[in-house]
Amino acid sequence: MSSKRLAIVDLSDGVQVEQSFRVADKQLRVNRQGGKYILLRLEDRSGVIAAIMWNADERLFERFDRRDFVLCCGRTQIHNGAIQLILTSIERMNPSEVDLADFERFDHQRSEDHLKRLQQVLDSLEDPALKAIGEAFFDDDDFLEAFRRAPAAISHHHAYPGGLLQHTLDLMELAAVVSVRYPKVNRDLLVIGAFLHDLGKIKEMSDSGEATYSDRGQLVGHIVIGVQMLGQKIDQVQKQSPELVTDEMRYHLEHLIVSHHGLMEYGSPRIPVTLEALALHHLDNLDAKIASYLNVLETDVSVGGNWTNYNPSIGRKLWRG
To answer: What is the pTM of this model?
Structure first.
């Protein structure tokens, strides 16, 4: 099966497909006429593709689960500037029938390199309290294993295993650079804020490997979870050094987490009211937007010309000259 399959990234318009995929997500939906269909997100190590099975029913829907390998027959087509797959059949496969290397999206070596670079940035902190908080996270083996594998999102930006680590490292390095330009911005506070801001996503996403949210993620969300995770590490630090982390520092760190979405309508319980929180919000938005736009450029299927197809998720075409 492996030698015959095309990687998702290599699929083009109008290709007849009969090969293995892994189910990242599945939904049973009803169209305007009352007919049922299955909407899927299929994946391999190269990426994710949307797929639709028309004229489906509950029996077919229940024949396979998320994370199962499936044999799909169908044809590719372009929809809103992206490749999707229209299926004529889908069957569950035994894992022994596929080459698992085709589906392993986690890059172990890149993860090691990113963790080393991230620890170097944390080691550069001069504030002993902030440095101790960073060390408390890095001394937690369970946290590190989850952190290195977690995606930063279900879709949009950094939506792949290791994406959260990539996004966090990029943001911390941006914070270190920007703080030099603005002396009134506390460098250490901004850098540790970049480290902390999305850590709750480790618990927000399902730890089963599914591209979906956990129950806790649905009910609570990564911002509140992140504040809870921070509180646990501060408590650990204070057991060793009771006076090291002041209440004021705790509040500023919590504010960085709860305000990083920028606006309440975007999910932040508070809007940024410190220089560090303002900088963190805009740097976070910059890194996420650049990553999502790069993904559009990399996956666009228009042929020739200087422009991508119109992409509804970002509301525009992009220049790719």
So the answer is: 0.77
